[in-house]
């Protein structure tokens, strides 16, 4: 009788141990499944970021821009202005190299992004021959050698301002790019202001002409910001504000980009 009771007790203990082992195995398998699922999600997200980064590079180095740069070099050469042609070619080569280098990186330091922006603006200012004036201002409290941000995020908005806001103005126009740190230096704010014809007038002119140039850079940048927010749990945002003069006439556009600093 005692032997039977002992046997039953052993079976009960063995059954409990078996249940515990099965529970442990189940938890391990579930954790592994969740980990694999998270890894697949992260891999898919990174793949989407890589795709949109490549699209950003293509939009920045679009054939229209490259053709205009090469055409400017040709014109300087035909005018026997070899110094200007050499300077323009050198800056163009630097911009291409910088864009290709940055396209392989997830983030760049702010000083490098500013240098690329200034290079792009100098090229466009030379091409428009004094019709385009620009200023890049950085507040003293902005640590340009510490802050990191995704590359090629600002240039598409500058290009958009030139092509759709300023190129239709006979007297030329201005672009101001300003960098500031807000909220106890936890937020990087970038503003791009132009005194162009405004979005409404630009849309009207575009609908009335057979304009072939299309800028997809701002749309791509919006997609990049959404993916970066998803990956890093950030709240980066871009806001577009139409500007008006005292007579309530369109007087330009203001782009505000806010990037949390982590």
Q: Give the radius of gyration.
A: 28 Å
Categorize the overall geometry.
Answer: elongated
How are the strands of the largest sheet arranged? 2-4-5-7-6
In total, the number of domains comes to 1
Structural class of the helices, strands and pairings?
alpha+beta
**CATH classification, class level:** Alpha Beta
Task: Bin the helical content.
Answer: 55-70%
By DSSP (H or I, 4+ residues per run), the number of helices equals 7
Tell me the name of the CATH homologous superfamily.
Answer: Histidine kinase-like ATPase, C-terminal domain
β-strand percent reads: 15-25%
* Head-to-tail CA distance between termini: 71 Å
CATH topology: Heat Shock Protein 90
- By DSSP, the count of extended strands is 7
Q: In this structure, how is the largest beta sheet organized?
A: 5 strands, mixed
Query: How would you spell out the order of helices and strands?
Result: HHHEHEEHEEHHEE
CATH architecture: 2-Layer Sandwich
Which stretches are low in confidence, meaning pLDDT under 50 for 5 or more residues running? Answer: none
Mean pLDDT: 76
What keywords describe this structure?
262 residues; alpha+beta; 5-stranded mixed β-sheet; two-stranded antiparallel sheet; 7 helices; 18% strand
What is the topological layout?
Layout: H1 2-60, H2 63-78, H3 82-103, E1 108-109, H4 110-127, E2 132-138, E3 148-149, H5 155-166, E4 173-182, E5 187-194, H6 199-208, H7 217-232, E6 237-244, E7 250-260
Parallel strand pairs: 2-4
Antiparallel strand pairs: 1-3, 4-5, 5-7, 6-7
Helix pairs in contact: 1-7, 2-3, 3-4
């Amino acid at each position: 009788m005692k032997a039977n009771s002992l046997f039953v007790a052993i079976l009960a203990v063995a059954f409990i141990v078996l249940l515990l082992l099965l529970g442990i195995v189940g938890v391990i398998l579930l954790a592994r499944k969740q980990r694999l699922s998270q890894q697949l999600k992260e891999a898919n997200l990174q793949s989407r970021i890589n795709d949109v980064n490549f699209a950003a590079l293509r939009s920045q180095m679009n054939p229209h821009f490259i053709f205009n740069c090469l055409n400017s070099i040709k014109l300087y050469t035909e005018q026997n202005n070899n110094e200007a042609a050499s300077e323009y070619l050198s800056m163009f080569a630097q911009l291409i190299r910088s864009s290709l280098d940055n396209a392989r990186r997830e983030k760049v330091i702010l000083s490098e992004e500013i240098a690329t922006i200034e290079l792009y603006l100098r090229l466009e200012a030379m091409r428009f021959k004094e019709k385009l004036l620009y200023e890049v201002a950085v507040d003293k409290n902005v640590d340009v050698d510490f802050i990191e941000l995704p590359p090629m995020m600002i240039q598409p908005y500058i290009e958009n301002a030139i092509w759709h806001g300023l190129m239709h103005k006979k007297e030329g126009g201005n672009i101001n790019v300003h960098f500031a740190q807000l909220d106890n230096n936890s937020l990087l704010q970038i503003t791009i202001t132009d005194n162009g014809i405004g979005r409404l007038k630009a849309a009207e002119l575009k609908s009335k002409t057979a304009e072939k140039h299309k800028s997809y850079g701002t749309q791509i940048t919006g997609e990049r910001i959404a993916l970066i927010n998803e990956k890093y749990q950030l709240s980066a945002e871009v806001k577009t504000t139409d500007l008006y003069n005292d007579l309530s006439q369109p007087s330009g556009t203001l782009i505000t980009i806010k990037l949390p600093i982590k």
